[in-house]
Structure formats: C-alpha cells, structure tokens
Amino acid sequence: RLGMRVMSMRFRICLLFLAGLSASVCMRSHFSMTLVCMLKKGASNSTATSLISETDEDGCPRHEMDSNEEVEKETGELEWSREMTPYLFTIVLVGQVVSLILSMYLSNRVSPSKMMLFAVLSQVVITFASPFLARISYWAFFVARFAMGMAEGLIFSPISTLATRWFPPNERGSMTAVYTSAFQIAFGIAPFVVSFVCSSTFIGGWPTAFYIFGFFGVIWSAEWFRVGSDDPSSNKLISENEKEKLAKFHTQGHKHSTIRPPYGTMFSSPVLFAHIAAMVSFYFTLGLFSSFLPTYFEERLRLPIRKNGLFTMIPFIAQIFAKNGLAFSLDALKRRGLIGHTAAAKFAQTLGCVGASLSLLLLFFADCTRPGLALVAMTLCCALHSCMAVGFYVSMLHLCPPLTGVIASIVTAAGVVASGTSTAMMGIASKSPHKYELIFGLCITLNLFAGAIYLAWGSAEIQPWAVHKVVDGKTEEEGLKSESRKEEEVEEEIEDIPTCPLEALT
Predict the structure, then answer these.
(1) Within its chain, how far is the Cα of 433 from the centroid?
(2) Residues 6+ apart with CB under 8 A from 235
(3) CB pairs under 8 A, 24+ apart, for 22-25?
(4) Which among 14, 223, 13 is positioned nearest to 121, based on CA atoms?
(5) According to its UniProt record, where is this protein located (predicted)?
(6) Burial (Cβ within 10 Å: 0-12, 13-18, ≥19) of residue 39
(7) Can you state the angle between helices 207-227 and 9-29, rounded to 10 degrees?
(8) pLDDT of 472 above 70
(9) Among candidates 373, 377, 371, which has minimal Cα distance to 355?
(10) Which residues, in sequence order, are bridge partners of residue 475?
(11) Other beta carbons within 10 Å of 484
(12) Dist. CA 356–CA 323, nearest whole Å
C-alpha cells in the first residue's frame, strides 16, 4: 500500500514543485551570503570590522571577530563599493515585478509547465554565467541580477495554476505547505552551504556556490521535462486509475481557460485586498529575514561565518516543520468536516500574524551576550510566520480557479514590492543605532494590521469574478458555483486512489 502511495503521480508532481521552487530561490537567494565572500576586506568595509574596538567594551568575544576577518581576507576578490551592493538586491526585485506583470498576460495563454521549465532554465544559464560577469564588472553583474529576477518572477504564476489542476481542494493546504517549504530550504540551507564553501580551503572559492546551485537547477529541469505536464489528462506516466478519478475533479473549467480577467471587479473586491495585504506583510518580513538575517547575526551577535550559517539555517528549518504540521492537521479536519476552508485559512493566518509578532518582541532583549535568546526568538518567529502560507496562500488557490495564475501574479507582485521596500527601509534605518528595533517594530505593526484585515475580509470561497462571460447557457458565476459543488462531490472519490504521502515529509 505504501509503495502504491509513493507511486502516486500527485506525490511526484508535488515533490517536483518543491524541488523546482527550491532550485529557483536558491539560485537567487544564496547571493546574500556569497557576497560576503566575494568582496575584498577593504572593499566590504564590514560593520563587524568597524566595531572591533567595541568588542571588549560591550562584552562580545573578540576571537569571533577575528574569525570573520580571516575569512573575508582569504576569500575576497572583488573591489566593489559596499554602498553599491544593496542595489544588487533591489534590482532583482525590480526584475520580479516586471515579469510578474508579464505573467498576468501570459498565464491564460502559455502552457504553465513549459513556462515553469523556461523560468528555471533561464536562471540556470544566468547562474553559471554570474561568476564570469562579476569578474568583468559590477554593472555586468548588475544586469545579470535583473535578468535573474525576471526569470524567477515567471515561476509563481504557472506553479499556482498547476496546483489548482493537480490537487483537489482538500489537498491544497498540505500541498501548498510542502512546495512553499522551498523558501525555507533555500533561505536556510543556501547560507549554510555558502558558509562552508567560503571557509573551506579545499573548494574553489565563491564561484563554486553559483555552480552548485546551477547544477541543482539542471537536474530538476531534466526531470521536469520527463515528468511534468499541464494537467493529469496530458501526463503520460500517470496511472489510469488516478487519471480517471482526477478527471472528474479536473473537468470544472481548470483546463486551458482563456477568459479575460475582469480587473475592475477584482481590484474592488475586499477579498482580493485582504490577500494583497497578507502577502505584503508576509513578504516584507520574509524579505528582511532572507537578506539581512546573516547580517543581523554578524553585527548583533558577532558570529563567525560558519556559526552564522548554522544560526541562519535553524530558523528556516523550523518553518518547514511548523507549517507542514499545521497544514496536514487542518486538512485532516477538513476531510472529517470539522472545519471549512475559510475557517482553516483564517486560523492559520491569525496564528502566523500574532505569533510572529509576539516572538519578534523577544529580539528587543537579545544581544551578543545572549545569542541563545536571539536564536530561540528568531526560530519561534520564523516558525509561526510560516503558518501564514497555510492561510492566505492556500485560500488564494480557491478564489477563482480559472484565474489562479492572474491572481497569483497580482498578489505576488504586491509582495515583491513590499520585499523591496523592506530593504529600502533597512537602508534608511541603518543610520540609527537601534535600526533592528525600528525595523522589527515595523514588521510587528504590518503583521498585526494584515492579520486584522484578513480576519475581517479573507475568504477561501470561489468568487464571481468572471460574470462577464456566458458558457453553455450559464453565466460564469453559475458555472463557478456548479464547479464548487462538483469539487465537494469528487473529493470523497479522490480519497479512494493512492494519495500523496506528504505526511512523510514531516
């Protein structure tokens, strides 16, 4: 029985979602730690270096600072101004916003499986070329980072569209928790791998980090080309039993819909606004953690690079267990009829917003003399913050299945802008000795505000956003309501076939 469940095509597709998104985010996000290794010590002008004279006065161990200095001196190569390096993070986000706007047009017109493959392959090419471009000039690398953002932005719309085609509603919570764990894998594992590469004398220096993650993308692309498809009916490797069962769920307008999105109605909907607000707070906090967590541990805790990599990894790994455990628990309650989709999403969203905010307050009392407190607080914050993905991220897939790609592009674009704003706010706050307290306070405010909005207006019900079209004598609204009823009828039959053993991942 277990062997049959492992052979489920939905299980394999879900793992490929996880691996593909992990490869994509790793190829972009490892740069936050790799940059420390790329710059010469004199060029990097590390904050840690400027604070050496204060280590005895504030009680921080001096030997940790010396360890950091040695790593920078041995591995640094590029003479870039430190004042210019923040723009390398900002330009990636600009590229993502541009491609997400493009995705709104392409989502109903291009094969999502091919679009996803194209996005990852583009990142692979850029990643392998990045060390060469970095050695040519700062501006050549700057252009490459913009292209990296463009490529990564193209992956969010197709993966959301494919999720609605491959997974029934009662599986979307756990499925979303699993494939969005890619962010935790990337933000947690990538810095740890880079810290090992940079501090090792037996590995070829910082370019090796680019090649490792680029090779990961090559492996995924080959497997997706062999296994991936737009929907179960077009997959050549799926069993007939699973295909027949999923076909009953899949015939409700998910396949190759090309309806014109009614943007006016959508943008005036409080439900969409609630999802945008949730994504803004989610990405604002995530952007800070992914870009500045290594810097926080270096500046406030005075950690050497290897220990920094470990401290950076632990909070993100905790996220994987927290949100997957919550997702599987809520999906189990849904299958038993004990909780609805909307109630489950609001519970997860509230837990994430309130829990992460309370945990962030603990960081106000952490410093280099209490690194354990900082690690515990950051781990709790990240773990609870990830629960938001089981909230608004899951409900987003229910709002209007034919327009999932469009909705994902709009909501994610707002989040990417928020992530870019977070890096800009950090730059503004950097002039203050209490910059982390200021920025953490802003995160707390945003999370609580977004949580209240979602609690009031959030929903996981199908929205009547395509009423402008008549199909088979019925308005689109009637068709969507019929679709919702049919989904409920099919869910019980879906459980008869081998299901995704996603519980094994937790």
Answers:
(1) 30
(2) 9, 227, 229, 243
(3) 22/182, 22/185, 22/186, 22/216, 23/120, 23/123, 23/213, 23/216, 23/217, 23/220, 24/119, 24/120, 24/123, 24/151, 24/152, 24/155, 24/182, 24/217, 25/152, 25/182, 25/183, 25/185, 25/186, 25/187
(4) 223
(5) Membrane
(6) buried
(7) 160
(8) no
(9) 377
(10) 470
(11) 15
(12) 13
User: Mean of the pLDDT values across residues 382-409?
Assistant: 85
Nearest to 141 by CA among 186, 91, 98, 190: 91
Single-letter amino acid code for the residue at 238: I
- The answer for residues whose C-beta is within 8 angstroms of residue 308's C-beta and 6 or more apart is 191, 195, 294, 297, 298
Of 80-94, 248-262, 346-360, which range is least confident? 248-262
Residue 337 backbone class (left: φ over 0; alpha: ψ -120 to 50; beta: rest): left
**Gap between the Cα atoms of 365 and 2, Å rounded:** 48
> How far is the C-alpha of 50 from the C-alpha of 470, rounded, in Å?
67
Please give the Cα distance from 121 to 218 (Å, whole number): 7
> Percentage of the chain surpassing pLDDT 90?
21
Task: Quote the CA–CA distance of 136 and 56 in Å, as a whole number.
Answer: 41
DSSP secondary structure code for residue 365 in this structure: G
* Residue 47 scores a pLDDT above 50: no
Per-residue pLDDT at 484 exceeds 80: no
Max mean pLDDT among 236-240, 388-392, 431-435, 499-503 falls in 388-392
Would you call 455 exposed, middle or buried from its count of C-beta atoms within 10 A (0-12, 13-18, 19+)?
A: middle
Which string of DSSP letters, residue by residue, matches 71-118? HHHHH--B---GGGTHHHHHHHHHHHHHHHHHHHHHTTTS-HHHHHHH
User: Tokens in use for 438?
Assistant: 């200021």
Torsion of the alpha carbons at 498, 503, 504 and 506, rounded to the nearest 10? 170
Q: Where does the pLDDT of residue 324 fall: very low under 50, low under 70, confident under 90, or very high at 90 and above?
A: confident
Stretch (H or E) spanning 470: strand 470-471
pTM of the model: 0.71
Is there a contact between 155 and 116 (Cβ–Cβ < 8 Å)? yes
* CA dist list (Å): 228 to 186, 246, 384: 22, 16, 32
Beta carbons within 8 Å of 417's beta carbon, 6+ residues apart: 93, 97, 280
Beta bridge partners of 46: none
Q: How far apart are CA 487 and CA 168, in angstroms?
A: 7
